[in-house]
């Protein structure tokens, strides 16, 4: 870990301004991802701006009848919130499928959206990795590499890593919107769909945030009703990242939305695929995973996603 | 004490404490955080510095240069020791393959090549990242499949050949010929390797985490080219080892070298992401098994051929070993191939050989039973043997494998299972049941102890035996208290210090049987001393009970015997050749019920049961804990544990506990353990054998067989992750 300085932000606008002002600064929320990465020198901020004390830890109702989740609301609190459990159960289910109880007590809404990939080569600083060291190459795409966990769609020649969040997959199915404040004090709202970037030639750029821009909240639209499910498939029963996860919201008439985790650099969903929901899992996945380019080791994720959704649809 | 013939009736047959369920005596210290582990021995040496390892980032080649200037200039850094400056050092022992430190040659990924020492851990870690290394890379071979293809038809140098396998196999009415694959496994014990070293007047003390104190001391002496008498190794508490700490490892060597150079105490821990490539692992295997049988189920021909990888000069994984003894059959062929590769060092891990071998053999037995239309319990029963199949003159000392199968099946409710693969459903879950047999040797080896009777009547026992979480403290206390006729809490057990008599150590499941016999020998020596004091000619006439000794009419308290100073007695047990003239082994049968999700292929265990035959069970509490721990490890091997190999780069890329998954609580439902009421007089004076490795053997295959029974899909490659069978499951 490199040496760094630390300050507590006073309010969101000041936090954003400071983050833009000090070169190499980063926000720290729960620290459950950032500190791990700093110990390995994958992240090397020279200055940390602690955003924990900014009063962004509340869930409030919006004028549109939805909920605004403060950026600092802990995953545990969010999952347990009565309104979330009642009106957005897919989000509770996604949250409790992630990490462990202790981690969720620390992990925040914003930090969760910004957590970095779990590609094993990203974690080994001795290996080439375009995401960690732009231009160094991608170890996961070389001959003989281990790519079972990695992405199958939305990936590029430069990077095939996935975004590991469960929470984001639930939020994507709910059409969540990310709210931010910029260093000049402007606020903006970015649909989650547009928030994470695909790797292309620049896998180190993972989202649309500008330097210094801070997440203040995530807004959920008014409840859409329907049956909410989240099925996370992994090699052990708990405490592992998804091979594939499926968030499903299904209305009584058979329509609804489907978002996938574990397959792409961001939560994966498309309107065209949603439209196929009444036609069954095969039809949805034929659309949703159209153009997938898996490796030999992770091609099973296509079958797995399809079968998982089929099982969810077949359940009472 | 010589153990030269089977034990006759002795005090352990009417035991007061041995065999009684006894909670571990070191438990309170451990759960209250007061048992100091190696890295936490803050008081052991003053002014400890912290060393952080620098490891190689290539699999094979030579170091052409190292630049440590930036590291040396970094805040807090006291010094750096590099592999180039110390030059080549001897390989620590014949059981090591690669040297641990020294010289320019790189044998494997994450080999230790420098240690950066600073005032604090954070400073050392930050500075270690500044060391620059240049390499000359050699291209290695890391693809076991490729070597197997070249070698698999060559059985010209078998380990064993009995009768005429080929002819018998040809003639057999029912045959099986299949290949099975097991991956590399990491020990993944809770506590990583850690050591503190300090030099004083040319003498070295190492506080460490090591299963085998004397091996460790001798290996340090060899590596550092010094006299073993000038070395002390101390390891009273060990946070698991599973074989990873059988041998001296680089943490201790780096700590010793750095402490010598800097003239300060230095501690070094291997950070978790270094453990998997820097230390040892269980090698992956490819195994071919052929079985031929008569229609009545009797095996007439059996062949087991296996390959595993090893660094040049190593011995690989002995996956074929149990097949030499487990089942009957007149015609036999056993072949072991080695694939020399520059992967990290393959070496012993819990039940080396049997764990991987039974993962294959016990699926093969299940497949064969199905071909024969027999119940897999019955098929194994029919092929039980009471003699060494390679040498029928040699008998098993005590073998109750059939009883394990019978009692286990009975308790599990085996008869009421569904016998049609894929034929039982519970909602979206396919339900299956599986059985497998387990075999593991019951070795014992020389083990010493010293007992010291205090004027309080308390008895201190000292031995360099280790407790790696197994319960050694407790069973040694039971043994001494039993033999000396005192209460359990009148005994104090001191372990893991090379100043104490050399013991068997912990490994190969020999620890319990050997070390309790050693403590018993020391107690008998103490009883002889007491007899002398009391001027009694025959110590056997004395009886020890309630903290006193009775000699005829006379009763004397033990405390009064030590009133003028403690009585000290030391002895060791050694095991005579007669023991090897028989086969001393342990046996078990494992039963599993599980569900496989019809949509996703996820496996969820429902219940597990083991029936074990391992001689006298010294302490059912700690023995059960050993067995259920082994069962958990077996579930890991069946369902998730794999150190995948990057065959291009030659290392294990998923080298932390996020990448290498082991079971979590949710994976493990109810576990039941039955111990058969058996004693093995040929094993030790206590008639005991080990259980620590037995608990793991066969478990993975029982899971595999249950998955087959649930789904009708036979998977012959571990771990049985869903990608291997998903597309063969029935429609949702
Ligand atoms: C062992 C382990 C297992 C895990 N398993 C799972 C799992 O199964 N599923 C899953 O979804 N997750 C899992 N996680 C990840 C966990 O969910 C994330 O670490 C956590 O959500 C991150 O939140 P945090 O508040 O701690 O973020 P931090 O570590 O504090 O920050 C993460 C990033 O977000 C930035 N940041 C924080 N707040 C803001 C803000 N307001 N505005 C702009 N940038 C900000 C930081 O600068 C940093 O770059 C696991 C983590 C661990 C350690
Ligand atoms: S897949 Fe992406 S994160 Fe992984 S090694 Fe390649 S570039 Fe790095």
From TrEMBL, chain A:
Gene3D superfamilies (UniProt xref): 3.30.465.10, CO dehydrogenase flavoprotein, C-terminal domain (3.30.390.50), Uridine Diphospho-n-acetylenolpyruvylglucosamine Reductase, domain 2 (3.30.43.10)
Keywords: FAD, Flavoprotein
Annotated InterPro entries: CO_DH_flav_C (IPR005107), CO_DH_flav_C_dom_sf (IPR036683), Diverse_Substr_Oxidored (IPR051312), FAD-bd_PCMH (IPR016166), FAD-bd_PCMH-like_sf (IPR036318), FAD-bd_PCMH_sub1 (IPR016167), FAD-bd_PCMH_sub2 (IPR016169), Mopterin_DH_FAD-bd (IPR002346)
Molecular function (Gene Ontology), one example: FAD binding
Domain of life: Bacteria
Annotated Pfam families: FAD_binding_5
Domain FAD-binding PCMH-type: 1-225
Protein name: Xanthine dehydrogenase YagS FAD-binding subunit
Organism: Alloyangia pacifica
Automatic annotation (TrEMBL), chain B:
Residue stretches making up the Aldehyde oxidase/xanthine dehydrogenase a/b hammerhead domain: 32-139
GO-annotated molecular function: iron ion binding; oxidoreductase activity
Signal peptide stretch: none
Superkingdom of this protein's organism: Bacteria
Cross-referenced SUPFAM superfamilies: CO dehydrogenase molybdoprotein N-domain-like, Molybdenum cofactor-binding domain
NCBIfam families in alphabetical order: peri_hyde_PaoC
The protein's name: Xanthine dehydrogenase YagR molybdenum-binding subunit
The organism's taxonomic lineage, starting at the top: Bacteria, Pseudomonadati, Pseudomonadota, Alphaproteobacteria, Rhodobacterales
